[in-house]
Amino acid sequence: xCSYQGGNTSRGFSEVxxxxxxxxxxxxxxxxxxxxxxxxxxxxxxxxxxxxGASGIGKSTLVRNVYNSTEVLRMFQRRARxxxxxxxxxxxxxRDTISQFKACHRVREFKSGIKNKSCDDLVTExxxxxxxxxxxxxxxGLSAEEEWDQVKSCLWTEFGANSGSCTVIVTTASAAVATHxxxxxxxxxxxxxxxxxxAAHQLFYQKVCI
Length: 210
Hints:
single chain, about 210 residues, 5-stranded parallel β-sheet, globular
């Protein structure tokens, strides 16, 4: 284990930092709790929750940890986490999401079966899957408002119109994109702030020493 004794040193640190071995997530416990509670509050709704903040601040890591948490696993029967590609490829997005939704319940389908379906057929299938069980979809790395409009067209003919529920979490560096995704509803937007100085130092020493 690597540890750093702070105090009044020539390096200017005043924190005592002890780093457990192989600690993967530093300084975001409060954010994890808030985001988990936020998702729980909206888990039965077809809404888009936006997590936004500067590039490299840890949005994807935060959302990934929450997505894989025991609490969230218990909330949703179908889950998918998709990283955006640029330019957006609608068919690939649909196939990836459907495959992950089905994998949650070990529903097997030959790749050729999904590959040969049209976009309209894929949209119909994903809506049917969302009707069947409560669903969570993470869309990581949106960069433009138009991308959300394309994603939305994959999930609902009219946003929220299907009889099932799918809670969508998007990550973006743009406050404007976050506002667009969440329909200008500030209660559906979560701004991630930089790590505290102590947590940033801890993360640095963890990376260097472990």
